[in-house]
Structure formats: structure tokens, C-alpha cells
Amino acid sequence: MILEWVSYIVFYLLAAVFSAFLAYCLYVHHVHQKYDHIPGPPRDSFLLGHVPTFARAMKSDNMGLKSLIVTNTHTHTHSLFDPLKCVICHSDAFTLDPVFISFKKQTARHKDIYSQINN
User: Fold this and answer.
1) How many distinct structural domains can be found in the chain?
2) Which of 12, 29, 66, 114 is the residue whose CA sits 20 to 30 A from 56?
3) What does the pLDDT look like over 83-97, one tens digit per residue?
């Protein structure tokens, strides 16, 4: 009787673990499909993304050189995959200048508003 209950529990636990792993794989596939149109280096692993590449670069102390090679090879905007998300890197200073300048103006305007409220 007890052995029968234990076998049911083990079966349902294994089914739950398998279902969770399948859901995780579907989520990773969804993220890959969503960002695959952005150029980037080829992924080393479906589940780990570019983590093995980062590990090798960190181990050999040439992370900066690796990022420079990726930027020069795959344009100024490229994607790197983490196990749970996609990181989009953009390294063109001329297109980022207007974004940071407008952010600085908005921040200064908010500081003026907050200083008036607090006084």
C-alpha cells in the first residue's frame, strides 16, 4: 500500500519536473524567435545562449577584445543571449547622444519641479 503511494508521488513529481523543463524550453524558444532578426554571434548552446563564450573570454582575460570583435563583426547593434533574456548591445555614440541629451534635459526639468514642490 505504501509502496503504491510512493510510486504515484514519484511519478507525479517527475511529470511536474518534466513539464517545468518543457515550459522553460518553450520560453527560451520564444525569446530566441523574438530577437533572432537582430544580428549577433552564433549561440553556443540553445539553453545557455552565449554564456560559454563569456566564460571562455573571462577565463582568458580578453572580454574587452571579444566584445570589440563582436561589435566590428556584427554591426553596432547586436544581440547576446543570456539563459533567460536577450541583451541588445548598441555601441554607436552618434546615435546615443540625442537619447542621453534628452534624458539629461528631462532629469534637470524634474529636479526643478521637485525643488519647487519641496520648498
Assistant:
1) 1
2) 29
3) 778 888 777 777 766
